[in-house]
Amino acid sequence: MIASVKGTRDLLPPETRVWNRVEALAHEVFALYGFDEIRTPVLESTELFVRSVGESTDIVHKEMYTFTDRGGRSVTMRPEATAGIARAYVEHTLAQAGRPWKLYCIGPQFRYERPQKGRYREFRQIDAEVLGPADAATDAELLVLLFDFLGRLGFTGLSVSLNSVGTDATRPAYVEAIRAFFSSNENERALGEDDRRRLAENPLRVLDSKDPGVQHLIGSAGFPRMVDLLPSLDPASDAHHRELKALLVAGHIPFKENPLLVRGLDYYTRTVFEVTAAGLGAQDAILGGGRYDKLVADLGGPKTAGIGFAIGEDRLVDILPADFRKEALEGARRVVLIPLERADVEESMAVARSLRQEGIPVDLVTAAKGPGHGLRVAEKTGAALAILLGQKEREGGVVNVKDLARRTQESLPRAGLAAALRARL
Ligand code: HAM
């Protein structure tokens, strides 16, 4: 037997019904907010992620599926969606349209992480990006959309963690403050090999450390906080952050400030946010996002502001409220149609065709070994009604309809069958 690759998984029915419902709702809600879908390739140039997500991030440093293709190019299976969308924005000169672009993308991402509950090597994201506007109202509107979507899925009690990571005006001073903090012997000793590398290459990344000792230091009172530097070093970012918070309060979006949130990707400027949920274990972030006002220019495009988020769909589905899940699984009640003999197949196919034309879903079970077997198959597929069609029914212009849950049966005329079935579904 050949098993699936470690860290990947098959999504089987009926669970796929839940995924489809979630995605259908995402399409619906995004459209309500003026978003359009974009589909970018799974495969991108490795260079794209090195330049956007950042060389010293865990993602680029050790998690990418990178290989040389047969033409000698270094390609990477995308670990996230934002970089590809920004690349497409530049490649297709979308900036020239002179309008904001509100784009979303649903699809698989790949990271070579240690698989565990809620963490896979192939996982799926529901990603949204707004390219163009740089104002705080755009950030607020994106969070309104997000909470609208989560609310329609039935989530209550979620709250967003919010921070500002500043801009180039503040970054050097913040980086210096982090270095100064770890320059004391005692604090420096807490750093393992990985964190020493982070401190040397990109001190902000030390905040991503999974080392409990380092996390403890970062949480201590003496650790520098970006928000404290903003008012003096970057009043514009400070004003942006304040305006966003005021808009979130006005829009009833629940948030908590988390001055230590920096997110594990290098492209962020100003706003960053994350939503975590209980019940996911150590992997508790169901989504993350933020503003990236330099990314498009860094990829060779015109100076363009951007902000977005990505929901981890696997994690979202994992903790989906029971009502939404139940409704999605039960879905449309289905009909199974069973020809009793080979001679009844042609007539059964005609009945199926006319019912489907009227919008009734019909699952034709052609290879049943007699009515008993056909009914057992119908029950196993979770159908609500089974229609039996044999010589007697054909001659009488009727069908024999069994309600599989109620265990009742009745003979219904072929004429007006669709309406009669609809009333019983
Ligand atoms: P991220 O925080 O790296 O951000 O990923 C977003 C979400 O993807 C996470 O919160 C998590 O739910 C899910 N996720 C990440 N890795 C895994 C995994 N191995 N298994 C299952 N789920 C996972 C980004 O990707 C940014 N591109 C978000 C963004 C969009 N920022 C601006 N625009």
Biggest β-sheet: strands ordered side by side in the sheet: 1-5-6-11-10-9-7-8
Global geometry: elongated
Cα Rg: 28 Å
Strand content: 15-25%
This entry's quaternary arrangement is single chain
Number of helices: 18
Helix percent reads 40-55%
Q: Biggest sheet: strands, sense, closure?
A: 8 strands, mixed
Number of beta strands: 16
Structural class: alpha+beta
Question: First CA to last CA: what distance?
Answer: 41 Å
Arithmetic mean of pLDDT: 95
List the ligand species: histidyl-adenosine monophosphate
Low-confidence stretches: none
Overview of this protein structure:
The relative contact order is 0.12. This protein has 18 helices and 16 strands. A hairpin with an 8-residue loop joins strand 9 (271-276) and strand 10 (285-291). With 425 residues, the chain is α+β, with helices and mostly antiparallel strands. The model has no long low-confidence stretch (mean pLDDT 95).
Short description, anyone?
It contains 18 helices and 16 strands. It is of the alpha+beta class and 425 residues long. Helix 1 runs antiparallel to helix 5, helix 5 packs parallel to helix 11 (235-250) and helix 10 (226-233) crosses helix 11 (235-250).
Which features would summarize this protein structure in a list?
five-stranded mixed sheet; binds histidyl-adenosine monophosphate; eight-stranded mixed sheet; 16 strands; 425 residues; 18 helices; alpha+beta
